Amino acid sequence: MRADLDIIKDWIPAGSRVLDLGCGNGELLAYLQANKQVTGYGLEINDENIKQCIRRGVNVLEQDLDKGLGNFASNSFDIVVMSQALQAVHYPDRILEEMLRVGRECIITFPNFGHWRCRWYLARNGRMPVSEFLPYTWYNTPNIHFCTFEDFECLCRELKVKVLDRLAVDRQHRHGIGSRLWPNLLGEIGIYRVTGPSL
Amino acid sequence: MPSVIPHDSVGLVTPQVLHFSEPLPLACGRSLTEYDLVIETYGELNENRSNAVLICHALSGHHHAAGYHSMEDRKPGWWDSCIGPGKPIDTRRFFVVSLNNLGGCNGSTGPGSANPATGRPYGADFPVITVEDWVNSQARLADALGIAQWAAVVGGSMGGMQALQWTISHPDRVRHCMAIASAPKLSAQNIAFNEVARQAILTDEEFHGGRFYEQNVVPKRGLMLARMVGHITYLSDDAMGQKFGRELKTDKLNYDFHSVEFQVESYLRYQGEEFSGRFDANTYLLMTKALDYFDPASAHDGDLAKTFAAAKADFCIMSFTTDWRFSPARSREIVDALIAAKKNVSYLDIDAPQGHDAFLLPIPRYLEAFVSYMNRIAV
């Protein structure tokens, strides 16, 4: 299982109703259905991923996140998950608000653009970072809204979103002492559990 | 004509007629005292009787969904692209049942059949049948075949409505519902098109108030017009443009009104002509009425989510991007209601230029998704 999903799966209580935005091949929902009696839906637009979800018996809906979540009732899910998709949507702030409207809690993971390797790449080459982990160049990347952990937490403060949990991990999903002390410098992927201002 | 039967065909098939003598009460308040249903089956019913799939047909469909009736047949059944060994509805795994609906004109009891009370054809006396009535008659069919529960009920367009109705009327008797290019009810525009088609038939002099059988005539003009207007709604603007454009049949314009000049005119006339030779005018009226009346949410204050509350099936809903008869938005209404009702549902919007007709065509992404879904159904 992908690093961040492996951690998320433990953050979701058994029996929850989950909406997974950008659910990929459905591996998280498939695991949760099989092991934690979780019910819910995945949203996806990639054809191959949709097929894999169907094969796995995961409820998958072909729906573009950029068109909003208007078809989901407020507070109709226990948890709304969005893993590695925040940086690819047109309006991260709006989708975050929508997630908090639809779900009681949200779990969000995204790559940290403040990681030392990104900073070093930009400082040394004067060009947008390209790596094994983020292999795209600036003009063809689906990732149009990169942010750092600091940026994200700043948005949370602006939207009065409460951060319940956060974890900075590297690609091997290790979260050692370094990424705990200096997450914005040493963490590659951020995993946040947040809730709306009303709770 | 197939000189050899393709390896992924169900091959030569023979329809069978089942007679039902227990009266069937109908939504209109009347009942059919007895009736026939003509069916075809493909594949084998397994020992647990758990692998049966019901195919529900669309407006002008019938029981002959797959395979050939004889080596002289020009074309296979209407959904041969999806039913057969190795096809989405794989007849090596599933026992497939396909019927002609009540009111039809392909062998099941309909307006052209003899009314047992009078010995004459029903004609206009044939009761108006609803989607609910069809589903109830299909439940009787399931009883007769010893099928307590369908592995899946599958249909496109009007067939999708029947598949949806199954999960509402008989929640315990269907494990999976697949509704393709369908809608939870008709829009005013849909009804308007149906009304034009009906008026074409009703105002045809040869219609004789539905009693044309006794006059030995057929309201061909009316049926032809009905089919022509219907056919326009089955194709997308792009599909028509691509197929015909403004291409002429003649080498120049004739500056008159009776010549068939544009290819699209010729095509529509051919379609109408062909249809009027094989379809029954009263059946066309009945089918369009059943479509117009379909609105399962009306019994639940218009709340479609409440309507599905008791459903136990898993759902697969598919639409096609250029379908404007039952657009993707109509499928999403179904999906949203199912989500609100907390049902298992998957939804795909297939990118296809062909319009409503796409559900009958072998579009790769459509067939692959169809296969994926059918394969996950345990039997």
TrEMBL record, chain A:
Which domain of life does the protein's organism represent?
A: Bacteria
Looking up NCBIfam families in the UniProt record yields: metW
Return the protein name.
Methionine biosynthesis protein MetW
Q: Which organism is it from?
A: Pseudomonas asuensis
Automatic annotation (TrEMBL), chain B:
Q: What is its EC number?
A: 2.3.1.46
Q: Which residues bind substrate?
A: 227, 357
Task: Determine if Cytoplasm is one of this entry's keywords.
Answer: yes
Q: Where in the cell is it found?
A: Cytoplasm
* Catalysed reactions listed for this entry: L-homoserine + succinyl-CoA = O-succinyl-L-homoserine + CoA
Q: Where does the record place the site Important for acyl-CoA specificity?
A: 325
Which EC class does it fall in? transferase
Organism's domain of life?
Answer: Bacteria
Q: What does this protein do?
A: Transfers a succinyl group from succinyl-CoA to L-homoserine, forming succinyl-L-homoserine.
| Subunit annotation | Homodimer.
Instruction: State the protein's name.
Output: Homoserine O-succinyltransferase
Per the record, the gene is: metX
